[in-house]
Every structure is written in structure tokens, then in C-alpha cells.
Design brief:
The chain is an alpha/beta fold. It has nine helices and ten strands. Bound molecules: S-adenosyl-L-homocysteine. S-adenosyl-L-homocysteine (SAH) binds next to helix 4, strand 8 and strand 10.
Length: about 280
């Protein structure tokens, strides 16, 4: 154990009364908070947090009131509009408000809607980006979201829309054909439809897939499977959301990059999973 870091000397912004800082908390591991997030936690009067925010992070704001605004865990769900208006009310009451959201607030997190409502009500805001689960969560599983031998593009998609269905506005055919690597948020509920659409559009049944649940937390689990077998494998595994699903050859890199497995004493399964031979000497 080492002491928690104090912030280095820097002209840290001050959270003023009447402001709302809309802040990403990263995917789980408190070490993945940004320094701006840590600075905000120290100053807030009120922290309004989502289900995906690890509660240990709230220990960093012992002086603040903690308000749960999540939609999981058997606790009653708060409506998006109510949350936004509560933020407005708290700011107008002169509080220093920290709105803490999982991952990055502007990645499938409705941060844009909240900030828009605040600005429409003349409440000043600061946006603090965070590490998104679809990037940082995969890195903790040993999967690089881009890798030179695999992909020059990556597509982030959501597995369901506001109505809870697979997003009708998504052109799965084009995604399947045009995306080298597909990273799916909120995909567990409709995993069968998603797999079906990708297969129908011509992706191979043997294409590697990783399902990473509770990434970067002590409960992180990683299932390596394929597009053809993932529905059955996920059902058999009993894995529960939150999950990031990654489709594409970058998943193979986990055979050499599973750094958490190696830290626990495992050997890399394959030092050259893409079969590219020795590492290039030149960049
Ligand atoms: N703003 C968040 C995403 C919110 S949408 C971000 O940038 O990460 C919620 C979805 O994010 C979940 O359904 C899941 O797909 C993903 N997610 C968030 N945290 C996760 C975690 N620790 N492990 C796996 N998936 C996670």
C-alpha cells in the first residue's frame, strides 16, 4: 500500500458555487480517474453519480453529499430529465456540483443531453473527459483497440437505443462490411440479434470476439469466443453486464498482451498471435 497521491502543483481550476462539472469517472479502477476528476472530487459539495461509478471513488469526496442517480442494482431508476433538472436546482441553490458518470461522459453516456439542459438553464458547466470502457476496459483485458497489423479504424456502437431495442438507425450491413474492429457497448441484452446481423452481413463465424465484463474492477471477467459461438458461450458463462463486446482480430492480441494474467503468473499463450514473424526492427 502506498499513500494516495496528492495533486501535483498546477493551476487547478476551482469548482465555483453554482457550477456543474460533468465528469467521467473512467471504467471502474479509481486509478483511471483523471487528475481533473480528483481535483473535482476534493471540492464538490454534492456528487451525483451513476450506477457504473465505483462507490470507492466517492470516498475521495468525504466532504460532499453523495446522491445516487443510477439505473441499476435494484435501486429505483431516476429519469434522465429529472436528473438534469436536479442538477439545475442544485446549481441554482449555490452548490458546487459534481456530476460523475461512468467512463467518458460524452460516449454513450447522455452527457451531451445533461450539459445542454444545464446550458439552456444558464448554468455554467465544465466537461471533464474520462477513459471510456470501450478503450480502457479492453486495454485491461489485453486488447488494443487499434493495432497496426489489424485495423486502421474502429467502430463504437451501442447495442440498444432509447426504446431498449437494437438501434434501428444503425446500418449493420455497412458496419459489418466497413468496420475492421467493432466495439459494442450495452450489447448483452440483444447479443443474439447483433451476432445474427453481423453474420448475415458476411462476417465470419470464426471471427474472434471478446466479452469483457466489469472491466478494470476486481470483478473483471473476460470471455474469448467467436461470432458463431458467442451467444451460446455467453449464456453458458453466466456473465452479467456491464460488458464491452469486441469483434475482430485485435482480440487475438490478448494471447500475448494479457498483462493481468501475466502479473498473476501465467505465461503468454502465443508471442505472435497474428503470425507476423519477428517484431520489426524499424518503426
Ligand atoms: N460513458 C460510458 C458508457 C456508458 S453506456 C463509457 O464511456 O464507458 C454503459 C455501457 O458501457 C455498459 O452497458 C457497458 O457496455 C459499458 N461499460 C461501462 N463500464 C464498463 C465496465 N467497467 N466494464 C464493461 N463495460 C462497461
Amino acid at each position: 500500500m502506498i499513500d494516495s497521491p496528492t495533486l501535483p502543483a498546477f493551476d487547478w481550476p476551482i469548482l465555483q458555487p453554482g457550477w456543474v462539472w460533468l465528469c467521467g469517472a473512467g471504467p471502474g479502477d479509481p486509478g483511471l480517474l483523471t487528475l481533473h476528476a480528483a481535483n473535482a472530487l476534493r471540492q464538490a459539495d454534492v456528487v451525483i453519480y451513476d450506477a457504473l461509478v465505483q462507490e470507492t471513488i466517492l470516498d475521495w469526496a468525504p466532504q460532499a453529499e453523495h446522491i445516487y442517480a443510477g439505473k441499476r442494482g435494484g435501486k429505483p431508476s431516476a429519469k434522465q430529465r429529472d436528473i438534469s433538472l436536479q442538477l439545475v436546482a442544485l446549481a441554482r441553490a449555490g452548490k458546487k456540483v459534481l456530476r460523475l458518470k461512468g467512463g467518458d461522459p460524452f460516449v454513450f453516456g447522455r452527457g451531451g443531453e445533461e450539459a445542454q439542459t444545464l446550458i439552456q438553464h444558464d448554468v455554467p458547466v465544465r466537461i471533464i473527459p474520462g477513459i471510456s470502457a470501450g478503450i480502457g476496459g479492453l486495454a485491461y483485458a489485453g486488447i488494443p483497440v487499434t493495432h497496426r497489423d489489424v485495423n486502421q479504424s474502429v467502430t463504437f456502437v451501442t447495442g440498444h437505443d432509447q426504446s431498449g431495442n437494437t438501434p434501428g438507425s444503425l446500418d449493420w450491413d455497412s458496419i459489418a462490411k466497413g468496420s475492421q474492429v467493432i466495439v459494442i457497448y450495452m450489447g448483452m441484452k440483444h447479443i443474439a440479434q447483433i451476432a445474427g446481423k453481423l453474420l448475415e452481413a458476411g462476417r465470419g463465424g470464426d471471427e474472434p470476439v471478446a466479452v469483457v465484463t466489469s472491466a478494470t474492477t476486481p470483478d473483471q471477467k473476460v470471455l474469448e469466443t467467436t461470432l458463431g459461438t458467442m451467444v451460446a458461450d455467453v449464456a453458458a458463462s453466466g456473465l452479467e453486464p456491464p460488458a464491452i463486446i469486441c469483434v475482430g482480430d485485435s482480440v487475438k492480441m490478448r494471447q500475448v498482451l494479457d498483462w493481468q494474467g501475466m502479473a498473476a503468473g501465467e505465461r503468454p499463450r502465443n508471442l505472435d498471435p497474428l503470425g507476423r514473424g519477428r517484431p520489426a526492427e524499424t518503426p
